[in-house]
Amino acid sequence: MSFCSFRGGEVFKDHFEAGMYVCSKCGHQLFNSRSKFKHSTPWPAFAETVREDSVSKRLESRGAYKVSCGKCGNGLGHEFLNDGPKRGLSRF
């Protein structure tokens, strides 16, 4: 499943089948479907990445990081601290 090819609607928001979400540009593994959870935003939400180097992050504002593919730098969106499915977890 390729991730982050936003073209007028996010096709993976309500997709909960088992699998791996990868960068749409280079195929780098980003998120496992086990870390996906329902959220009120129009995009898919994940609690954690597959590996520590799956994404690169830079602080954008208090409580939010800009997130890119850890391999090719393709923009993926944000990590919001303490907005995950459980207290203390992030939302990607």
Automatic annotation (TrEMBL):
State where it is primarily located. cytoplasm
Q: Write the protein's name.
A: MsrB domain-containing protein
GO cellular component terms, A-Z: cytoskeleton; nucleus
Q: Name one GO biological process term.
A: innate immune response
SUPFAM superfamilies membership: Mss4-like (SSF51316)
Citing just one GO molecular function, the answer is: peptide-methionine (R)-S-oxide reductase activity
| UniProt KW Zinc keyword | yes
Q: Record's family? A: Belongs to the MsrB Met sulfoxide reductase family.
